[in-house]
Known about the structure:
Layout lengths: L4 H13 L7 H14 L3 E5 L5 H6 L5 E6 L2 H14 L2 E6 L2 H10 L4 E6 L10 H7 E10 L7 H9 L3 E6 L5 E6 L1
Helix pairs in contact: 5-6
Bound molecules: S-adenosylmethionine (SAM).
Amino acid sequence: MNINDKHLEEVRRDAINNAVPIIKKPKAAWLLQFIQQHKPVKILELGTAIGYSGIILGSEGGYLTTIELSHKEIQKARKYLRKAGTKFTIIYGDAIPQTKLLVEEGKKYDLVFVDFMNSQYCDVYENCVALVKQNGFIITDNINHDHSKEFKEKLTDDSRLETEIIDIGDGMSVSRKN
Ligand SMILES: C[S@@+](CC[C@H](N)C(=O)[O-])C[C@H]1O[C@@H](n2cnc3c(N)ncnc32)[C@H](O)[C@@H]1O
């Protein structure tokens, strides 16, 4: 499955026009390349917004499970993800208890993409590590942001992970689980 550039641009424009924060174009391009290279089969996203990054995450036919707190954003995300042909489930709720539930259910993912409230990243840290498969990845947005400092330290100090910082915009990290 390939990305429909025109549709992706329509979603990006909608986000910009409605002040919905989404990853910017350089990060989107980097993420698309990562997805094309690694072709994750099971993907978890924390912070759906209107589905822009979700379309990219699912663009190689992987199954996207994505968590979002805002009912308003979910309506649009559902519409846009369907139009893109993404295979998906949107979980309506707070990423902190919802990821805990996924851990308790024994769920595992090839890729966990963390992009919700930066100040709450640490509250999902252990859940994310538990939810990613061996040799799977955690990608975290805004990693060089002040609010992500503690999360970044956790990632880089964690012997269970190999973490690389990608200096695009305010940074993304890619952590591979050993
Ligand atoms: C930066 S946006 C996500 C952008 C999206 N990943 C993209 O690039 O297309 C962050 C989203 O996280 C949602 N959010 C904030 N706190 C949350 C929480 N505790 N649990 C789930 N979603 C949350 C917000 O409503 C917002 O839509």
